[in-house]
Amino acid sequence: MHGRRCKLHKEVGKVSSAQAVYTVVLAIIGSATLIVPGSMIKVAAQDAWIGCLVAGFGTLVTGALWLWLARQWPGRDLFQLVLAAGGQWLGGLVAVVLLIWIGLTLTGATWIGADAILVVFLPETPRSVLAASILIPAAYAARSDYQVVARLSQLTFWGMVGLLLVLIPLSATEMEPLRLAPVLANGFGPVMKGAGVLVGILTENMALIALLPMIRPPVRPWRLLVAVTVLAAGMVLLLDVWTVSVIGARLPGRFQYPVLLMAHVIGVGDILERLDALMMALWIAGEVSKIAFWYWLFCRGIATLLRLKEWRRLVWPFFILLLAASVAWVESSTAYPAALRAWSALFTPVIGLVVPLLLLAATAVRRMQRSSASV
Amino acid sequence: MRVRRCWGWLLSLLLLGTGCWSRREVNEVAISSAIAIDEERNQTIRITMQILRPTAAVESGQPRSGTFNVTATGPTTAAAIRNLDQQLSRRPEWKHNNAIILSENVARQGVGEIMDFFMRNHQSRLDQWILVTRGKAAAVLVPRFQLESNQGIGIRRLNQSAVHSTAATVPVRLYDFVTSLTNPAEDPVAAAIETVEFPDPSGEGEVNPRIRMRGAAVFQHDRLAGWLDETEARSLDWFRGEATGAMVVVPCRKGPGRGTSVQLISTRSSLQPYWKNGQPAVRATVRATGQLGDLMCQEDLSKHEALVDLQRRTAAQMEAEMAKLMHRLQKDLGSDAVGLGVALERTFPAAWKKMSPQWREIFPKVSVTPEVVVELTQMGTSEGKLISSGGGGK
Amino acid sequence: MMILGLLLLAVATGLPDLAALVRRGRRKEAAVVICALLIGFLAALSWVMHLPVPTIGATLQWLATPILGKQ
After folding, report:
1. Which domains are delineated in chain B?
2. In the predicted model, is pLDDT for residue A195 greater than 90?
3. Helix (H), strand (E), coil (C) string for chain B
4. A-C contacts at Cβ under 8 angstroms
5. What is the pLDDT of residues A16-56, one digit of tens each?
6. Do C60 and A346 touch (CB under 8 A)?
7. Which of B24, B29, B163, B175 should be substituted to probe chain A, the one whose Cβ sees the most A Cβ atoms within 10 Å?
């Protein structure tokens, strides 16, 4: 225990609150920026942006539940918190569920990353090689600990923001705001479905809990939660609005990676054209940032659950398992949306509501027992 | 530590090696500049691809053709393109393709399925231009541009020039075309392209075939419904707010003369649906700014009233042309290339849901009122009427 | 060839850390690493050999059938 405290002490002050926000934002939308706008537009058409607002508000509530739980157990990271709040059995069970969810998140993100490169750029390269090429830098960053992941995320985040700030004005001549009309033509049903697509991903804002003890100087956690959720939902909203106003609401639903196609319509004179490669490079960086964070949390979680003294030594040995799972996530891109829907349906309510409520209840019971014992 | 670093380096090599499988060196590919699609009698698809001949283009240093055409047939677009490999020593690459030219025959049969390949293939880019020709599409790839090294670039520049200057056609990119194709509330339109034979200006020598973009092809869903001439095409551009360089020649108000040329600099349009006696109607508002091209009438434009009158007459002429186009689209072609359905859907979504199944029957009956406002902001470098016909400066 | 490659990958990614753990007497950690390598190798092998193992997506869909219905 003393050793762990020393280690934590050494880590103090290495992640700023801004870096934590960038890290969690990319942990949420690192891979989502290319697929989620298309999936949302497919179900909610031009109203997809309203779905972002609904999903943003919804996941602020689920994130707040986790923050409330973290307040009950200050100074603990995600898995320490879960084990402390839930005790050996319930905590252990919740930790296992979290580990499965994290494992599926990171392998699913790796699969889609490899698929995008395969479909758009390198059709003859084996999927396993592309998946490995994403997982290797992610594993390297994860093994170098969260400070490296945070720095990578910081760079990538500003790269992505910078690229959007260049691309969106460049496509201004192609944008037609009227394409966003009519608003709510089909009622709230499609909007809620669109929000459902995003909620599954935005629920990952609870990952902030994992970084809270490492943030120096400490800031009010709810501010970070709002920043993370608003930035993540806002970026998807921006992409939704951009995509619909340029190519309408019907076409994106027919493409796997519609946001990438936006680079096709951008051209200034004969100079600034074919920005797809730049867009893809930044997207891969976002993908690597996302996977690195979840990889780091996965190994930390296993070490905490099994009370191992070292977690870094798990990173590379788990590589082949995660690679195999990434490659075998689904057989083809046509199966991916259904698998993602199933992943979301199974885990979103559990991670967003059931687990924090259960742990809050367990905490309350534990406190009551403790106070009655002391009386 | 050293061992791990070694492994780290080895694994890092994998990152750099991902492109090895899909690598295509520039000297191993045949770069396509334009693709023409025809249909043979036995329903097979004929693809003619114009390939760049890099050495010819580089070595010559002169604006001469650096291309050659290859052609192959197949039951599907993808199969026909793959069959090109049988004649090419290098693999065709169409990431840099500029234009897809469809023959009238193909367009009349329906282009939805043909477009599938171009939307699906990873090499295909959405910013290619879509054109339709009255005869064989492959014939468009034969004549040479005098100022360009290949037809693909020539056609691309013609399209760009049509956007900014001539407005004699309706330039459409692949993504715009497919957006219309996938939208039941509108019909696609594409630029028309043709080969014309111009005799040598000196009167001797051979006849030079040239490429000309004039008019437009309008579709009913994915099938060609008919052709628009250049006046109709520019009216369609006005409806779409896309024509920036059209030259409107307004007849002289009084007396003899060829007319006054008003060159439009920009047009902005909006379609505003409303209800008229329980039926849908659309007001098409166009705001155009322009400049005086030339003055070949006995008129004095130095007076403000005369200028206002010219603006009004230009607007009236544009309104008449737009009304004529609408009549053609509604009564003859049955094609909603203007996008009345889209405007109705955006403004009255609930009503659109009810009327959309019968849109084809409703469309010809929709009353469309063009309302044009023209503002002449520039008169050129001279004032009023410079030289009167028959001599004598003013 | 693929199996050999897999084996090499498993060894390359796992062996240095496993050796370090054994050297420092971390038995529990070493056991976890061996398990991870073994499961990872078998999972990769089943994919390489095209064994009829359901994909993660198919399993998730099957598990989510009571919620989403048959997709």
Report:
1. 26-228 (no CATH), 231-394 (3.30.300.210)
2. yes
3. CHHHHHHHHHHHHHHHHCCCCCCCCHHHEEEEEEEEEEECCCCCEEEEEEEECHHHHHHHCCCCCCEEEEEEEECCHHHHHHHHHHCCCCEEECCCCCEEEEEHHHHHHCCHHHHHHHHHCCCCCCCCEEEEECCCCHHHHCCCCCCCCCHHHHHHHHHHHHHHHHCCECCEEHHHHHHHHCCCCCCCEEEEEEEEEEECCCCCCCEEEEEEEEEEEEEECCEEEEEECHHHHHHHHHHHCCCCCCEEEECCCCCCEEEEEEEEEEEEEEEEEEEECCEEEEEEEEEEEEEEEEEEECCCCCCHHHHHHHHHHHHHHHHHHHHHHHHHHHHHHCCCCCCHHHHHHHHCHHHHHHHHHHHHHHHHHCEEEEEEEEEEEECCCCCCCCECCCCCEC
4. 123
5. 999 999 999 999 999 888 788 888 999 999 999 999 999 99
6. yes
7. B175
- Which region, left, alpha or beta, applies to residue A248 given φ > 0 means left and ψ of -120 to 50 means alpha? left
Q: How far apart are CA B136 and CA B133, in angstroms?
A: 7
Structure confidence by residue, pLDDT tens digits, B79-134: 999 999 899 888 888 888 999 999 999 999 999 999 999 988 888 888 899 999 99
Number of structural domains chain A divides into: 1
Distance between CA atoms of residues C30 and A351, nearest Å: 31
Does the structure's ipTM exceed the value 0.90?
yes
Whether the ω angle into residue B280 lies within 30 degrees of 0, i.e. cis, is no
Q: Which residues of A touch C21 (CB under 8 A)?
A: 310, 313
Confidence of residue A5 (pLDDT cuts 50, 70, 90): very low
Q: How many beta carbons lie within 10 A of that of residue B204, not counting itself?
A: 7
Q: Do B175 and A247 touch (CB under 8 A)?
A: yes
Under the banding of pLDDT at 50, 70 and 90, the label for residue A8 is: very low
Interface of C with A in 10-69 (CB under 8 A): 10, 13-14, 16-18, 20-21, 26, 28-29, 32-33, 36-37, 39-41, 43-44, 46-47, 53, 55-58, 60-61, 63-64, 67-68
Structure tokens at B312: 């009004």
Task: Evaluate if pTM is beyond 0.95.
Answer: no
Residues of chain A contacting residue B11, judged by C-beta atoms under 8 Å apart: 132, 136
Question: How many structural domains compose chain C?
Answer: 1
Our CA-based measurement puts residue A340 at a distance from the nearest CA of chain C, in whole angstroms, of 8
Looking at residue B34, its pLDDT comes to 94
Torsion of CA B119, B122, B127, B133, to 10 degrees: -60
Full residue range of the structural domain in which residue A99 is found: 29-357
